[in-house]
Amino acid sequence: MRAESAARPVRVVVCDDQELVRTGFATIIGAQPDLQVVGEAADGLSAVHVVARERPDVVVMDIRMPQLDGIEATRRIAGPDVSGPAKVLIVTTFNLDALVFDALRAGASGFLLKDARPAELLHAIRVVAAGESLLSPAITRGLIGRFAERVRPAESDTGALDTLTAREREVLALVAEGLSNAEIARALVISHETVKTYVSRILMKLDLRDRVQAVVLVHRLGLAGGH
To answer: What is the mean pLDDT of residues 136-150?
Structure first.
């Protein structure tokens, strides 16, 4: 992944109906040598068209936009039925919990508070681009926990967990706490590449699309740690 980043910048589309916010995000992102803004959109419908045309790696998506809101746009860009979906980073605020639940279902890969610092935005884009869905302790754990409470676990969920080895369950538990691959590697005293292999295997065995879905599953089954 590091070699790919050196060869080609992460392609980003910025979607926000507020021109000041959109331009600010694009300026911050475009100033980075490893990131490239390939398109902007002021509403959800335009976002879908821009993404279809540009095929970005990451879409920075506002929720409340005209014509088509960010949730429906996310579903059309990253939903379960989309072929070759882009990764969507939702930009949200604390008072939009209900909408974020819907965004999870729509296929969002991460969440960021709208008042986040520029460095946090850049970090979030890079994390999502690398396939390590952003699980910020400030917002995502709580949101996912409340989201999971609304969805009853299926028998297939618990059955799938039985296919995991003890080490895979250990890695899954740390993923559910919001730890990155690097943090899991330090915690278990194993290599970063080994963690990536474990995470990929876990997602494949549980038939999950990304780490967000893994965290939702853990919370839904009541297996998350009490913190």
So the answer is: 56
